[in-house]
Description:
The two termini are 25 Å apart. This protein has 2 domains: 3-121, no CATH class; 125-269, Galactose-binding domain-like (Jelly Rolls, Sandwich), CATH 2.60.120.260. Helices cover 10% and strands 31% of the residues. It has 2 helices and 13 strands. By secondary structure, the protein is mainly beta.
Amino acid sequence: MSRYSSQYQPYSFGYLSFHTWDNPWSAQQILGAPDVYPGYADNERAWAPRVIDANQFLEFQFTTSVYVTKLDVYETFNAGGVKAIRCFDVSEEWITLWSTDKVYVLELDIDCTAANTWLYGTKEEEQWVSGVIGYSSQNGSDNYSAQKILGVPDVYPRYEKAISAWAPDVIDENQFLEFQFAAPVYVTKVDVYEVYKAGGVKAIKCFDVSEEWITLWSTDQVSVFESAMIFSPSFTSTIRCFSDTILLVIDCTAANTWVEIDAVRLKGYQKSWSRLAKREHVNEVLEDEEDKAVTAVESAAAKMSIKQLLAHVRK
C-alpha cells in the first residue's frame, strides 16, 4: 500500500522514449535500497513531485511492524524539504515518530517552497555551441565542417543532406565531436539536433571541473531514423557534472553512410559551484542533515517521562 501527493511525469516525444528506467521519478522509485545515493543528481531513479507547494507527501510501508529507533531519508536532490515524519500506529492513529515506538506505515510531509522547485530553484539556462575543440573527421574544410555546429540550428527541422551541418569523412563507429559553451553549468540536458540519418549518437560525455570525463549517457546499439530529430536522452549517470565542455561519440555503421548534426543545445544551472562542485561536500551536507534529524527525534523522546512511555506501551 502506498499513497503520494504527486509524481513528476516527463515529456515523451511521440512513441519514442529515451528514459532508461521504468516509471521515471515516480513514487515507486523509493522502493528498496538506494539507486542514486551517494550521488547528488536530478535522477529518474528517485521520486520527484509534480506539484511545487508545501503539501507534498509520501506514504509507504515496510514488510514488518517494528519499534522504530531511527528513520533514514536518502535525499539526493535539493535536500532539506522534509518537514514532518509521522507514523500510523497500531491504534489506527497518526502520531509523530518521536512520540511512539510502534509503527506500521510511515508518511513524510514535504515542503518544496524553500527550493521553489524540485530542481535547483534557479532559472535553467540554455546555450548553443560557442567553439569547437576537436573532431574525428569532417567532410570538408567549410561545407560539412565541424564549425557548422556553432550557434543555433541552420537546417533543423528539415531532413536533408545539408552543407550547413557537420558530416564526418570516415564512416565508422568512432566518430566524435568535442565542443564548448560560453559558461559552465550544472548540466541537466543535452539536445542534439540531427538532420540526416538520425540515431547515430552512442555516448554523451562532459568534462567535469574535477578534470575527469563523465559519461552522462551511452548505448551499445545505435539506430537510424529517416527524419530530423532532437535527441534528448535522460542521463544515466548518477554523478552530476559542472562543465562547459561536451563530447559526442557517433557511430555511423548502422546508417552505413555519414550522419549529419546541425547544432547542440546545452541546458543547466549556473549556480555558484565553489561550495557544491565537490561531491564529497554534498555527502557531508546530507550526513549533517541526517544528524540534525536524529538529534531532534532523540531530544523530543527525552522530554517524555517514563510514566508517559509506559502508559503508551500499555495501550
